[in-house]
Amino acid sequence: MTPKKKPKVYITRKLPDAVETRMRELFDAELNIDDTPRTRDELSAAMKAVDVLVPTVTDRIDQALIEEAGPNLKLIASFSNGTDHIDVDAAAKKGITVTNTPNVLTEDTADMTMALVLAVSRRLTEGARILTDHPGDWAGWSPTWMLGRRIWGKRIGIVGMGRIGTAVARRAKAFGLAIHYHNRKRANPETEEELEATYWDSLDQMLARVDIVSVNCPSTPATFHLLSARRLALIQPTAVIVNTARGDIIDEAAMIQLLRDGQIAGAGLDVYQNEPAIDPKLIKLANEGRVVLLPHMGSATIEGRIDMGDKVIINIRTFFDGHRPPNRVLPGRP
Fold first, then answer.
1. Which of 123, 155, 246, 305 does the annotation list as catalytic?
2. Residue 288 pLDDT > 70
3. Whole-number pLDDT of residue 135
4. Is 192 a catalytic residue?
């Protein structure tokens, strides 16, 4: 019997060794060993030649690239939870299936969300820098020095009560926070009862009443600048914002101005509107101790990345076995 031909797979970024090894065993896979981001021309050339493209969130697979793709490209198996970097509608018109890797980053991202809540409220990075940047300057404990804010007993407002938002709520409840949330659809009664959660159909009203705002919704055209300048102005001046979702959900310029004016107490950010570029004003605010900035590492665990790779492999194998991939992304959906 003639061995089945392996599909030709192009992987745009360096993946964990265990994932890459399995990819090479199963597919005719081209790896990116040095992790240099692929240029648009490189992506275009690959899409003309391969059967499967494995991009990540750093690759913008837009309509023009998809329309130029060769006839053999039938699957874009994204190494990502979100697919806002791919024009899924254009892919569907071209007859290309798109898949993603959902449900494996939920707990890791929720962990990082709570870490940022604590870091901002309790001034963790400021305290750490005292010891590392100015060794010898610390004079010892003082009753009025480096005072942060207690989170126990406060209200957290979760924007987007999907899997990640719900996981954040469970952690927040364990820390003694009262759970408030806004979502397109109300959570089921069992979840609300478990979390003792208060639902707000009006995002405006919720924002004005909570002490911590956690952004956990996906990036879609409908959520672009969902936290607009007008809505940000509703937030209490003692409240903080944490964003581990996508940078374009918040009007970043408006948030920066409110932080500079003291109209928002602080922010913990893992994502940015124009990343990897970071607004210099945010860096200045971080140096002043008013924001905590992280380099989009909310889902960065070894376990999470391997789980993502396993899902990519399953999607590719299922597709080329003639079945519908388990994580197919349908056009018209986030």
1. 246
2. yes
3. 85
4. no
